[in-house]
TrEMBL record:
One of its GO terms (molecular function) is peroxidase activity. Keywords: Oxidoreductase, Peroxidase. One of its GO terms (biological process) is response to oxidative stress. This is Peroxidase 4A.
Length: 105
């Protein structure tokens, strides 16, 4: 299946490698963590990076940053480029339609 969408294979590989890089750094910084804790924390950071790329880089190109600002869904980023709009009560999942169709082009 990887030969159907080589660009998607590269994206998966990049995030796989990034997860492992994060896990190594977290394990070095937190010697008392077990493997599962290291894995889950690296996973959370990796997902956050992915979401930031989609929300602040891909969607503004696809939908238009001005359109997103007008709809109130793209806050201005404060220097040095970080948002402070995290809300733990918001469901961060991505719909299957988005993951399997929209984000693949």
């Amino acid at each position: 299946r990887s030969n159907q969408s080589p660009h998607l294979t590269l994206l998966h590989q990049a995030f796989h490698l990034e997860h492992n890089r994060l896990a190594r750094e977290l394990a070095d910084l937190n010697a008392g963590w077990d493997d599962e804790t290291v894995f889950q924390q690296a996973r959370k950071l990796n997902i956050a990076q992915y979401q930031r790329i989609v929300y602040y880089e891909w969607l503004p190109i696809y939908l238009g940053a001005e359109n997103m600002r007008a709809a109130g869904v793209l806050p201005a980023l404060e220097l040095p480029g970080f948002a402070d709009d995290y809300d733990a009560s918001v469901d961060p999942t991505v719909s299957n339609a988005f993951a399997t169709a929209a984000f693949r082009f």
